[in-house]
Amino acid sequence: MQENNVKRIVIKIGTSCLTHENGKLNYEAIEHYLKQLVELKNSNKEVLLVTSGAIGAGIGELKMKLPCSMAEKQGMAAVGQGLLISLYNKILRQNGEIGGQVLLTSSDLKEKNRYENIYNTLEVLLENGIIPIINENDTVATDEIRFGDNDTLSAEVSSLINADLLILLTDVEGLYNKIPCESEDDLKLINKVEDITPEIEAKAGKKGSIVGTGGMKTKLKAAKIINKAGIPMVIGPAYKNNIISKMVKMIENGEKYNIGTTFIPGEKKCRREKSN
Ligand code: GLU
What we know:
single chain, 276 residues, alpha/beta, Carbamate kinase, eight-stranded mixed β-sheet, 9 helices, 8 strands, 40% helix, binds glutamic acid
């Protein structure tokens, strides 16, 4: 049996898994995710959380009508990000842990000095046992400097810090052999993807929800980024009990891929160096 050592794990959670339908933060669900992160830390793993939900929580708090303009979404993110981080820290502290907020735009990762600074900051947080809680800096990100979705952001962060595993938690089981909303006939979960072919990309459909921006398309974009860095990625259902540690065990055992969809990478590379 092949054993993979999974030490550093990035976990991204989508808006629909963090909020109720009315946009209010789902305390119970968030507590369940954070307790799993704490368990992993207790078993000597390093965990980084990439969270969505800022815009959604802001919209829910202010009962804004959808659709919103970009400026309105950015304003809502200012409200929602505060709500999110205070809830995360409240729950983490109840469980003996501390979270550290890191807000990024894509231009932060394009310039060598800023890239190095972010790497150093994340390393310091991890060395000090703090759980980095990362989101896009939605209030300032304009089109030119936006990641636009946290799937891409989490893949970029995973390659930056040379993670061993990226987990994308979402509200479906994983990638299916066809787009589920188009037809349920012969619908099957794809457990393992070794090559992101045009056929695989065609199974992703187009977009996510109105408030979140993801969907399968951006998850496959993330898979391509992470694949190049030689890091495995699993897409799976946030709503299942103890799903995170089950996914970690599955990757560590490297044997049966029976939860969600695992993207198997090529050989792991050392940390990518910025050339500019
Ligand atoms: N950064 C956005 C938020 O916190 C989410 C982006 C996404 O849905 O991927 O609301």
